[in-house]
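User: I'm putting together a small comparison set for a docking exercise, and I want a reference complex before I start. The sequence is below, and the ligand is FE2/S2 (inorganic) cluster. Could you produce the 3D structure with the ligand included, as structure tokens?
Assistant: Of course. I'll restate your input first, then give the structure tokens for the complex.
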Amino acid sequence: MSDLKLVVQRVEDAGELIREIELASADGAALPGYEAGAHIEVALPGDRHNAYSLIDFSGNAASPETYVLGVRLEDEGDGGSRFMHGLRPGDEISASGPKNHFPLDGGDGPVLLLAGGIGVTPLIAMATALAAGSRDFRMVYASRSAAAAAFADRLSGCHGDRISLHHDDQAGGPVPVADLVNGADPETHIYVCGPKPMIDATRAAMEAAGRPEAQFHAELFENTSHQSGDKPFEVEVASTGQVITVPADKTIIEALEEAGIDLIYDCQRGDCGICQTDVLEGTPDHRDVVLSKEERDSGKVMQICVSRALTDRLKLDL
Ligand code: FES
């Protein structure tokens, strides 16, 4: 569903392979307000949608005049980023939202924002929101190089030494997230947005340190549902006995919907938790970032938007 008509107002290079795209209302309707962490879903050619987080440096998210996105050109993506990089001022697009699967908790404890690459975009709005209040926060922004660190100068300009930059090429490797977790006050809420290895390492460090699950918040900035070497497998629907083949290039949700089964889901990236489904038989291949280690190890639940199967068949409680 697309309910926003938007016109491209400004396009700028924001970093290596990264475009900043500013969108205004195309039909004069006021743009809906949003909270830090929210995204819109842009309609792409071929009846597809991609989610892009809303960047807010201004503090006007409650009544925005424009929406600002940061889009990285992905070689191996589904073409969505290529479409977005092809946009020019005056082009019109449709979108839905804003929605927020990655909100700030309502507490007053310290906050650590961990950004990996283009995963910085929702955390920019969080930094703006936190700076307007009294909550203690800092951000560690990791990128492959200084050239790839989009928005870093503006972040440092706005928030000074609350922003720490980590460039893998200069540091000789990825940001040591376990050290960051262990060095943070035990009450700290950690918000991580970036590639899956970074999110997994953060969750593992928090679990190892005995930090409560409620203090971990993640949003994934890559689609993990398809990987090279993926094979077809079968899903048995427990309520009907129907057996559906999930091809290598489709998700469980896509295959089941094509078979006429109604499902409830949202993000389709493995980070909102809505499509969680009980597994009655078989072994899931977990690719989400919402389940805890204990839940994954149990093999009894899975996110059917991205996760697949390690066995030839899964029997799901649907
Ligand atoms: S739809 Fe969000 S985790 Fe599956």
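The chain has three domains: 4-99, 111-220, 233-316. The helical segments are 80-85, 120-131, 152-159, 168-171, 177-183, 196-208, 252-258, 293-298.
User: Thanks, that's exactly what I needed.
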